[in-house]
């Protein structure tokens, strides 16, 4: 399915609404399917494939992916980006959430209304410090 994907997190932390709302998103084909059971077990994987080749990824794939919501012109998918550090090092697992915009007008409007929750009690959208 052709869609625009906007990443809602950076290094596992929610991005402020001001930074998310202005992003056009990464364009590609959304591929949501079972991961290789020999390597990942019985889990799902979400990939954003390049439009031209369909072999290369536009973004790091989401492992252990799950669909959180399908509404208002978009699909919200959460999972883990897994980055290898070296041959003998343990890989880094970082939580990531994608907002996949399928219908442009309603999907981007819903993304601007998105209010992420915070476990610390402080809302990331109330941050008044400049980045």
Radius of gyration (CA) equals 15 Å
Question: What distance separates the N and C termini?
Answer: 34 Å
Number of helices: 3
Regions with little confidence, pLDDT below 50 for 5+ residues: 118-122
Query: Helix amount, in percent?
Result: 10-25%
What proportion strand? 35-45%
User: What is the element string, with H for helices and E for strands?
Assistant: EEEHEHEEEEH
Broad structural category: mainly beta
Mean of all residue-level pLDDT scores? 83
What's the count of strands?
Answer: 8
Q: Which key features would you list for this structure?
A:
globular, 131 residues, six-stranded antiparallel β-barrel, mainly beta, single chain, two-stranded antiparallel ribbon
Describe this structure in words.
The protein is mostly beta strands and 131 residues long. It has one domain. The protein is 14% helix and 42% strand. It has three helices and eight strands, in the order E-E-E-H-E-H-E-E-E-E-H. Strands 1-4-5-6-7-8 form a six-stranded antiparallel β-barrel. It has a two-stranded antiparallel sheet with strand order 2-3. The chain is globular and about 45 Å long. Mean pLDDT is 83; it is low at 118-122.
């Amino acid at each position: 399915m052709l869609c625009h994907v906007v990443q809602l997190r950076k290094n596992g932390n929610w991005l402020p609404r001001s930074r998310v709302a202005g992003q056009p998103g990464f364009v590609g084909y959304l591929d949501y399917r079972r991961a290789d059971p020999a390597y990942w077990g019985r889990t799902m994987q979400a990939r954003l494939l390049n439009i031209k080749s369909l072999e290369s990824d536009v973004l790091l794939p989401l492992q252990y992916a799950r669909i959180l919501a399908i509404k208002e012109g978009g699909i919200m998918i959460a999972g883990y980006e897994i980055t290898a550090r070296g041959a003998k090092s343990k890989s880094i697992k970082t939580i990531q959430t994608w907002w996949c915009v399928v219908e442009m007008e309603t999907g981007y409007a819903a993304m601007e209304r998105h209010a992420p929750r915070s476990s610390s009690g402080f809302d990331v959208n109330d941050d008044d410090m400049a980045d």
